[in-house]
Amino acid sequence: MVSVTVQSEGKQGIVLPIGAESGSSDSVERAQLIADGVQRIVLWSQSRRVLQGSMEATGFPLRGDESAFRLLTEVIRRGPLRPAELAEILSTGRANVSKIVARLESIGLVQRRTNAADTRSVFVELTPSGLAFANEFAATGRRFYDLLFSAWSEPDVDALERLLPRLAEDLETLTAVRLSSS
After folding, report:
1. Nearest to residue 79, comparing CAs of 41, 40, 110?
2. Domain layout of the chain by residue ranges
């Protein structure tokens, strides 16, 4: 089997199988091209340049605080999260998450809310100011992708819109099956 390891900024890589042992050289070459494309997108999306550009484009008030921006964008994308969940997502410790949340609380973008089902735990959630930032974050993303796809044909954009969610779902499914059978 042919595989490629997708890595970003020193984090542990993900090994993606990209071909079967009995595949033709054409199918292996095609799989390698696709895997290379996926890897380039992953590396681009997690690059410091993109992160800093996003912080600047959205007017993030904690200039240069990449950890706070990453935490905030996870709460924007996923909704309220427990600090332990944020620590896992961000590959950091709970104490560090607590410090990052405190910085975001100090400027009014997030708040800690006690879990009604278990008063010993809290959720980190957006405040009204955080929600306004989330709307600007989304608008900035739309402007970026509008510009990116302005030179693409409508059929190409339609094909990407149709196939990209399928690719993401299939990757998640295959990873879950592979990991559970390992």
Report:
1. 110
2. 1-47, 60-129
Residue pair 86/71 in contact by the 8 Å Cβ criterion: yes
Residues 2-13: pLDDT tens digits? 455 554 444 555
Specify the fold of 60-129. Arc Repressor Mutant, subunit A (1.10.10)
Q: What is the pTM of this model?
A: 0.76
Question: What's the token pair of residue 179?
Answer: 């990991």
Task: Note the pLDDT tens digit of each residue in 76-127.
Answer: 999 999 999 999 999 999 999 999 999 999 999 999 999 888 888 999 999 9
Say which residue the tokens 């990757």 belong to.
171
User: Measuring CA to CA, which residue among 120, 140, 115, 3 is closest to residue 60?
Assistant: 140
